[in-house]
Structures are given as C-alpha cells and as structure tokens.
Amino acid sequence: MPFDVAKSCGKWKHGEHSDNYKEIMAKLGVPAEMFDKLCEAEFPIESSLEGNVMKSKVDFMGKVIENTFTLGVEGEEEDPTGTKRRVTYSMEGDCLISVYPDHDGKGLVVRNCSQFVDDNTIKTIVKAGDLEGWATTKRC
Length: 140
Description:
This protein is mainly β. 11% of the residues lie in helices and 56% in strands. It has helices spanning 21-27, 32-40; strands at residues 10-17, 42-50, 53-60, 63-70, 75-78, 84-92, 95-100, 110-118, 121-128, 131-139. The chain is globular and about 35 Å long.
C-alpha cells in the first residue's frame, strides 16, 4: 500500500534520530542553534493527494509553507527559510520519496524516504551525499 498522504495531516514533533542526524542537518545547511529549535518545534501539516497531484501546507515555526507537486515530475519546493529547490516526489511501495538533485547549489544529492511506522510515527531515512541517517516524527 502506498504512503497514506492524508494520514500525515495533524500536528507533529521531532522524535528520535540517528547519532549522525545533526551532522546530516549541518551538511544540509541547518545551523546548530536551529537544529535544537527544530527538535523542539511542533508543526501542523495539511496534505492531500488527488490523482498524482500532492499538496502540502506546513506551519513551521511561524512560517506557513505551501507546495504543490505532481508525483514523478520535478518541481520546485520552498523550505522554511524561503529557499527554493528542485525536487521530485514519488511513491515506492509504502514510502514517500523526495529527491533533491542539487540541494546546496553545488551538486549535493539528497534523498528522503518517509514511511509510517504506526499511525502516530513517521520514520524518514535521509541520504545526503555520503551520509545516511534517520529521524522520526511523532503525532502530538
């Protein structure tokens, strides 16, 4: 069964993460002081999937970010800092995959694979260049 986009609606908070997750976030450009804030923040998510069109709206630390994608087609995504990046979303089995072919403007390829562990936990495996780790988000 594919990743249930509608089930991801609700309020979420960072859970556990791999020992190298902070290093991965630094490689993605997240400063250490922001990392700690990210781990404490709660963020409401609204998302839907109609056919191959996925829409998401995230209220993240006071900034509302809305993005629309067509699965399998490269598009543009805005992150909480206002940075826009090229990304392709797709479904692989029960995972929602996002691939950023040039995350940092210097050729860094980033691949995220998110899947439900249970109704209240999403695990995301992050591969950023040669680093790979994971993090969970928990429903509040």
